[in-house]
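Reviewers asked in the last cycle whether our approach scales beyond single polypeptides. To address this, we selected a multi-component target totalling 575 residues and predicted its structure end to end. The input consisted of the following lines:
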Amino acid sequence: MTTAKPLSLPLVAKIFIALLLFLQVAPVAIILQTAFKTPRSLLESGAFSFDGWTLTNFHRLFVEQSLAPDLFNSLTIATSSMLMSIACGALMAYALTRWQSKMRKHLLTTLLVSRLLPPVALALPLFLVLQQLSLHDTLLGLALAHTALNFPLATWILMPFMDAVPRALEEASELDGASRYQTFLHIILPVSKPGLVVAALFCFLMSWNDFLFSLILAGSKVKTAPLTLNGYVTGFGTEWGPLCAGACVLLLPVFALSFKLHQHMIASPTQGGVKGD
Amino acid sequence: MNTLRSQRSIIAFVIPGCVLLTLLIAWPIVQSGISALTISSNQHDNTLDSSRIFAGLSHFKTLVSQVAFWNSLALAALFTVSTTILEILIAVSVALFLYFQKTLPRIVEVLLILPMFVLPVVSGLTFRYIYDPNDGPLSFLFEALGWEPLAPLSDAVWAFWAVVLQDIWRMWPFLFLIVYAGLKALPKSSQEAARMDGANTRILITHVILPALRPTLAIAIGLKVMESLKVFTEVYVMTGGGPGDSTTLLSLFVVKQAFHFFQVGPASAASILLLALGMSLAWGITRMQNRAAALGSK
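The resulting structure, written as structure tokens, was:
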């Protein structure tokens, strides 16, 4: 506001924001604090006592509870489904920005709808189908399920980037004798790298965050870390120390990648490529 | 440039995605349609390979005859309405606050939206810990204050609102980001004109800003309703749908039917209903978005 006198917000609004800030941060702070607390101080007075930092909970998590294999499963599934999602997404996005056919619109709608469907409604049918394909309770089955659900988003993210690649660039490449596939590989993909990074981060995070599909499409032979973490809750009392430590381990890549994502979101679809025009 | 040959060569690009969509989205939906409309000739074999007999709408009838189904539908509706109203209120207030209070450090905004990044499973477990009657921070706080100890997750009514609170904590930042972006994109001229005419902040908000924000709010609400339909993990982790059925939302009902009671037929029928609900909402939102885009371009 440049014209009128500066606004002063009522005190009530400021108190409201301060309170909200506290409420938003407190649960995260509680997990962090509990993760580094000694078991004794947790037992005696829960959240409010504190007798020094300790890594006991992390030690127990990895040595006694052996979270590492499940963490590795999560990582494998997230990475492979991310790679498959951006591969399918990039190919699809390129086709959808270049194709002149009636199919194009149908595909776009299908992609949008499959992105918006409630995953719970797909969980049971996917379970039945993966059983038929004998992919139930396998790393590949879970990674494929994540890919099917996530690649439509990758496509949507990549489309503006692919669309922004100047057609002149492609024409030049084809005049030089490159096939469409070579053009895609050597011209389109490198130019849309910022989009690929954003899509990859999103796909990784969505797979990493998934609980429902791990629960239903796997869970006995193949367990992911979120599932294992939930398994620490028992009816006979839960050891919140290792559980919160596990929560921290799961949160770490999310915060790191979200930060990275934010940096990349600022990047615009294309800079340069063709001069003049 | 666009010769027939090069147009045809595009088809290869859509194949991997189409195979995935067909195999893991379309085929499962068809299969669940089949299992919703048929019964297995072998009662103990629920796989799709067994020979199946057409059963008409009998699974749907079983479904609607269950009190638990209507209960889960009602809970899902109540959950959607209450979280949407409360979250949009918080989101709009915070967005307006940050819009007028420009001197606030950026870190405040980041910390406010922090919960949005927390994994659903971690969010659910965190709140389960906070509410835990034996070791939870809340129970220690109550003890320190000399109040009655409480166990919200073992009380039918409190458990539901505890779940709602968890959702508000994690999801209002999502609505806030949409509203805030819409707010920042509003043209400044009409606000300045209103200021010149002597409008105070309240009038400015109620008569100038909020009416202009209506398309953004409609989209935010639409997306939120869609998200509420998807909610599963947080609730499953916090309460498992209990105590009793008091937090069994529609999504949890489907999973319980299928994997606890092995009622594949009725569960498939419920999945189909959920899909139909999701699709019609998705259709509504895309229409709304198109209309908003059309309004924006005018």
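Chain A touches chain B through 94 residues (CB under 8 Å). We regard this as preliminary and will revisit it once experimental data from Aim 1 are available.
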